[in-house]
Amino acid sequence: MVLYGNVCLDDAMEVHNEVRYSFDEATTFGHFSSVGWYVMRGLFFGMIVCVMGAVGCGKSGSTAIVPQQQEQSQDLLHAWEAATGTRNWQEAWELSPAILSQYPDDPEIAAAIARVAHELGKADVAAELLVQACRAESFQDSARVEQMFAAMLSVGQLYECMDVLEESLASQPNHHSIRRKLFELHWGTEDRPRARPHARFLVQSRQFDIELLIALVESSTRTKVEKPLMDLVARYPEDLRPLTARAKTELDRGRLGEARATLEKVLLNHPQHVPANVLLGKLQIAESNFDEFAVATARMDRNLDDYPEYWIALGDWCQSENLTEEAAKAYWEATRRDADSTDAWLKLRGVWNLIAHPETMDDVTAKAVASRSTQLNRLNQLVSEFKITGKESVSLAIDISQTLVDLGRIWEAEAWTAIATTFASGDRPGLTQTRQTIVAKLRRKTPWQLTEGHPELTVSLSTFPAPDLATRNRIATGGGRDSAQPSNDGEQATNRYVLTDESQQRGLRFFGRTGDDLDRPGIMLYQFNGCGGGTIDFDLDGWSDVYLSAAGGQPPLVDSAENSLFRNESGSFRNVTSFSGGDDKRFGQGVAIGDINEDGFPDILVMNYGPDVLLVNNGDGTFKDVSDRLGPGNSKTAWSTSGAIADLNDDGISDLVILHYTVGLDAVLYKCPSPGLDIARACTPLRFPALQDQFMQGTSVGFFEDKTSDWNAVPSIAGRGLGVTVGCFDDVAGVDVFITNDMTSNHFWTRSLQPEFKLLESGLMNGLASGDRSLAQGSMGIATGDLDRDGEVDFYVTNFAYECNTLHQRSETGLWRDQTYSAKLELPTLSLVGFGTAAIDLDNDGMLEIVLTNGHVDSFPEGDDAVPYAQPMQIFQRDKGGRYFDRTAETESEYVARKHVGRALWTIDANRDGLTDFMVTHQTEPVALMINHARDSNRWIDLRLSGTTCARDAIGAVVEVQSGDQRWTCHQTSGDGFLASDERAIRVGLGRSSEACQVTVHWPGGHVESFPSLGVDQQWLLVQGESEGFELSLPD
């Protein structure tokens, strides 16, 4: 036993497994069984004896009954007893009003007559009588309260029942089973502000189980099954409020149209139902329907003020109106109502960058706000992993409790360690020590949330102006709302894009795959990713060559098909693998292309499940395997996926970023059984620990040193990395690294402001950790480019099915915002599994299209939520209103018209005609070379950069191109998304403009140079330090 204050905690505490009440059970009448009825009758007649004067039975101060009344009452009761004894319920019912009038405040009589009402099918009257009985005795009888609960639900009085249960707990706070039921009802009906106090009371009263603890730390995504609520609506259609739960599920899945229809149906009948109004407001903001939000919210009463989601939506509305201080106050109000809202803290920190109030939020407080956001994100990810791995991991429970301590949530931290003592296995000494440390900090009067040491919880923005929905402060461009500047008008196009798979006729015949039976169910996790490739002009003849990875064996053995190098000979490809020395046979994944030794010739880094391979270009058409230069960290069991070659620390020598997925070989050896199926299926990635990514520094002698720890590139939660892009993406000098992770938050590494080179992970703070609907998604590919032509880089991230892909658009705050819904990009990708993607100006009209390839990870059985294995490629075109339209069906292409199991996608100009082509790998068919035959005769310019004082590849350079009155901003990047490496070129579509281009290059390191009067429809080499560009010859 561990004692602190006056509270006694048992180290081996008993977990109270609450028996949940299902809505289906509400059709029975609780305790009115035959045995229960005779007990009730005994109590009833005992009360009669008491009323007739038995000594010691009466309540103090009760009114005596005169003899005549006693005789009348006795006769009445005898008649009532006779009627019920013979089950003559109708006669008993007719006598009941007289009895109730005689004893209006007696709970036993009210309950007994409720039995009669129930037998006569008067369920609503029975429920009313039980409420009366419970109130008469101040809800002291918990069994009767349970009866009342069942009776009210049986007649569809869900919300009335919750109100009465609140009333009962005000009188009898220690009725824990009732409180747990009420918590479940509030939580299940999406009224979480009313649910949380009950959960906290239960934890502090030692009445918790693992499900309650998980609910308290989960993100806002709905996890409760809404079927019982839907059944209740089916039985009692006059009350549609439970449908709010369905709307929340639809919103979480990105089905905005369905969620809106459901909420409108609810609010038509119940216009003041607060949870539905709050959810509708969140949906309106997601759709960028700011005016609708303002009008609808202004009609609501102030009950909305208790809901943090309302304040977050209001803050977003204020930002759309350029009301920065009002937005800050709204987000602050949200944190006051829920100190555990990651979204509220993130948005408060983001908008604070635009306000100069150092006296209100100093550096210490600002860092505390950022830290709380990070810790909350870590907590959510730990809990997600805990749930998926079986809810019995002691090590994860310890990590969760430690994070809760860091957040100042000591009660929950202690509860997690207490419940971990009941798990079957684990590190008992570590658990005991952790638990003792936490218990030592806890006292009976310890508040639920500590504020000491948490300046973020004591900051006050009360002096800031309050948001006013009547305010209109729009400017002509849309009041700060993101607006596009495309040169097209978004009208329907017919056969605008013409794409042809010419891999076979151009000699590029290659089929890289991770197994031989990928067209059958039962594909394992290590086979999911497929194989990648990259564009490389290895012989510097101006024609883009291709390097492709292969797999098919068993990691980490060297038993796969060989990787291949294809030389581009004037538009046709020849396999030169055997001559070049690029025929590695490990389990290939991604490919990164870059100049690692600054000799001007591009080199190849191949990521494998097993040791990675580094191939140095000898300059004579051959490559040398120098994988030993990767050092001892090049593990035989490491699962590498994607990578990038770029100078991270600005020393003029290229470094390496190598993404990792999971630890060891368990993902190869371990299979998860599928209930009801004869075949094993892949396990969820969260079943296997994530493996830390590597950041390798290039040295002057050509070797690489692991600087992951020295550069502070160790995140609070290791990711399962799949996609990467490197370039200068923010306003801080130096290159940044954006990494997409599978089922863990994405990472954004930027250079810290310390004198010594360090990296800072700020994905959460910059809005890139995930989309708005989730803290972690199945993120894979990345398309990088200035999609809205505002001079800032945007990202398009592909995700798993029912998550929808995410458009991260950089806003005026300097942060990235999820603009998926306002851009109308959610529905087309919702049911698909996205992999490789790229931002390509297919028709050179000056606006980037989004091109992506899709395909499921396995061929699953048919069902309501079944997603096809083979899926269509997609092409999205942006209009000048910022919306995207799916142009896939209008594209003239046999390949695009068919479905595929696509994986990696990267760019190439295979025939050097100034139109960007691309390549796609697949699981069930050979690689595709998609040649672009766009019919529009738009102009273009192609720029190749070569650094001299910076690294040769000039990764991180920012290029501004101006032609006439049009301006474009482009970024020199590396990594290029999922398992692939794009053609290292900046190609800009100029539309109809034929004016010479004025080009300004912001080189890495800060050097800026201008190159005037570069001709259009030409390829140019721009060398750092040269005053003029060099025109490169093109084929006739």
Written description of the protein model:
It is a single chain. The radius of gyration is 34 Å and the shape is elongated. The chain contains 27 helices and 44 strands. The strands form twelve sheets. A five-stranded mixed β-sheet has the order 7-6-5-4-39. The protein is an alpha+beta fold and 1036 residues long. It has four domains: 72-270, Tetratricopeptide repeat domain (Serine Threonine Protein Phosphatase 5, Tetratricopeptide repeat); 363-458, Alpha Horseshoe (Serine Threonine Protein Phosphatase 5, Tetratricopeptide repeat), CATH 1.25.40; 501-958, Methylamine Dehydrogenase, Chain H (7 Propeller), CATH 2.130.10.10; 959-1032, no CATH class. A hairpin with an 8-residue loop joins strand 23 (794-797) and strand 24 (806-810).
Quick rundown:
Residues 954-1020 form the ASPIC/UnbV domain. It holds the Pfam family FG-GAP_3. The protein contains 27 helices and 44 strands.
Helix content: 25-40%
Domains (count):
4
CATH topology grouping of the largest domain: Methylamine Dehydrogenase, Chain H
Per CATH, the class of the largest domain reads Mainly Beta
Quick one: CATH superfamily of the largest domain?
Answer: YVTN repeat-like/Quinoprotein amine dehydrogenase
Order of neighbouring strands in the sheet with most strands: 7-6-5-4-39
Keywords: Signal
Biased composition (Polar residues): 484-499
InterPro entries: Crtac1, FG-GAP, Integrin_alpha_N, TPR-like_helical_dom_sf, UnbV_ASPIC
Region (Disordered): 471-499
